Amino acid sequence: MLVNIQFLRFAAAMLVVLFHEAAHLRATGHEAGWLFGFGARAGFAGVDLFFVISGFIMAWTTQNETGPADAWRFARRRVARIYSGYWPFCLLALLVFAVTDPARLTRIDLPGSLVLWPISMPKMLIPVAWTLVFEMIFYTAFTLAIAVGGRRRAGLIGVAFVVVLALALYNQFIVQAWSPENIGRRSLAAAYGFSPYLVEFLAGAVLAYVLRRPGGSALFGWGLLAVGAAAYSAGGWINAEVFDGRIGQGYFVFWRVAVFGTAGVLIVAGLVRLDQAGISAPARFSLATGGASYAIYLSHTLVLEATRGAGLNAWLGGRPAWLAQATFIALAVAILWTCVTYYQRLERPLHKLFRRALRV
Fold first, then answer.
1. Which of 59-73, 85-99, 139-153 has the highest mean predicted lDDT (pLDDT)?
2. 136 is in which domain, residue-wise?
3. pTM of the full predicted structure?
């Protein structure tokens, strides 16, 4: 178990929480402050960190698995993990929106949302679950790689990375597929199947093969981590100053991946090298919060919607800015604590039930 990667999963989830809380804070009419200001500029890119981590973990944990039997076992493990953690929050979403926004329930594609079929984000029951659709696509591709790749899998993944990167460059600079004029013409299959986000998954997978043997000093690991963190922070500045805060929109997906995907690869590489050098984040905290990161990610927008519907945002609008900021910080801590408790007492047992049902 790479403890530092678990800590990064926690950090990535909380960055996304800060991003969405920043929007709710702005809705109260108050200034964001430095913490939520950073969340507004760069918090959404916790998703990019998740994509790199996911590709890395898949390749790292399956390096000795090969052939159809191992591929089928891998697929069942991923299905058990994804849906055991996802479906309970689908039920919560139905309850929350039934109270706060009943009209929304008439616009969603419930079957597509439940199975994580590629659908447009406005039709997703839980809006942030669009990332899980990409996860399922990559799980499917990786299952095939395990089944047929054999000892050639590392090379196959490397070739796939080059091909997908070349397609991203072609779509960006030759056919301009992500421009405002063309993005609406793309089919959902093309939008998901040829998305630059797949570069992040594959970059993480390639990184797993590069780092499978310990190498370099702890100083080298710290250097990679520092450069990656600086690149991530610079990405927030680039978003605000170059893209007017809109790099997270679909028009700029290539640049988002180029900026934050690169930072994510450096951060993951640095943390893994530090783990290999015996330098890790606090293990108990990292394992608990990293394990809860899935619940944090899926639940936080529902919590924010529920508190908004209960009148919290309106109430904070007439209070001092410091109180509004402190309230959302406290809410983030409450989400973290609740999700850690949920992960330990409910999510893990439910995951075991799914594994037994799928005979994993």
1. 85-99
2. 3-357
3. 0.97
Residue range 73-118, pLDDT digits in tens: 999 999 999 999 999 999 999 999 999 999 999 999 999 999 999 9
Cβ contact 15:53 at 8 Å? no
Q: Assign 185 a pLDDT band (cuts: 50, 70, 90).
A: confident
Q: Is 339 exposed, middle or buried (0-12, 13-18, 19+ CB in 10 A)?
A: buried
Q: For the chain, how many structural domains are there in total?
A: 1
Find out whether 57 and 5 touch, Cβ atoms under 8 Å: yes
- Could you tell me the CA-to-CA distances from 348 to 26, 301, 332, 340, 341 in Å, in that order? 36, 22, 22, 11, 10
* Encoded amino acid at 147, one letter: A
Contact 267, 229 (CB under 8 A): yes
Where would I find the H helices in 68-173?
A: 68-100, 110-115, 130-149, 153-173
Opening angle at CA 230, ends 15 and 12, nearest 5? 20
Amino acid at 311: G
Identify whether the C-beta of residue 32 lies closer than 8 Å to the C-beta of residue 26: yes
At residue 183, φ and ψ (nearest 5 deg) are -65, -35
